[in-house]
Amino acid sequence: MKKYAILIVLVVFLVSLILISNLMFSLLEKADTPPEIGVVQEQFQNRCADISLVVDYLAASGYENVYINDREKDMLADFVRMPIDDLEIYTVITDLFESGYCTQINKIGNTIYFLQWKGIRDIGCGVAYSINGIDLPKIQYATELVPLSEDSWYYYVADYNEARSLTAGDELREP
User: Nearest 10 degrees: CA dihedral of 25, 28, 32, 33?
Assistant: First the structure.
């Protein structure tokens, strides 16, 4: 009798563990899904004036590569750390970070992009701008690139794991 009671407790424990694991996996899956394009578009439109100031500043900076994140008070421009020398731009960038709009701002060649969301499994999402308005933005590991309603602006998803599994002939997927 005692053996059966222990066996029943063990089975109940294992079943409970499996159910909890499935629930946790489901919750993590939802938490690791990038925001939809409509949400990103709306956030972009709400901050468009500030974003345009930053884009104009970076496009005119003369630097090929610029990296700004929400933890630093300066920027990495062509691999040299330097202060953001324009007080208005510094204030706008600080506000974009502090408001939670984005966590990174990058310029790489013809592309300026704002990382708005980052998942737990090497997935990122945001808006990207093509400086020349002709070429598509180039973002490492991009798996989605969808034009927004504003010229030269795109919604992007960069998924490292999916990108590395794509073959040479695969295209970016549409939502």
Answer: 70
3-state secondary structure of 145: strand
With beta carbons less than 8 A apart as the criterion, state whether 103 and 70 touch.
Answer: yes
Q: What is the DSSP letter of 131?
A: T
Return the number of other C-beta atoms located less than 10 Å from residue 85's C-beta.
Answer: 11
The residue-averaged pLDDT of 30-59 equals 90
Q: Report DSSP state, residue 15.
A: H
- Does residue 166 contact residue 143 with C-beta atoms inside 8 Å? yes
Q: What is the tens place of the pLDDT at every residue in 117-130?
A: 998 888 999 999 99
User: Residue 26 has what pLDDT?
Assistant: 46
CB of 115 closer than 8 Å to CB of 102? yes
For the full predicted model, state whether its pTM sits above 0.85.
no
CB < 8 Å & 24+ apart, contacts of 135-142: 135/110, 137/110, 137/111, 137/113, 138/108, 138/109, 138/110, 138/111, 139/108, 139/111, 139/113, 142/172
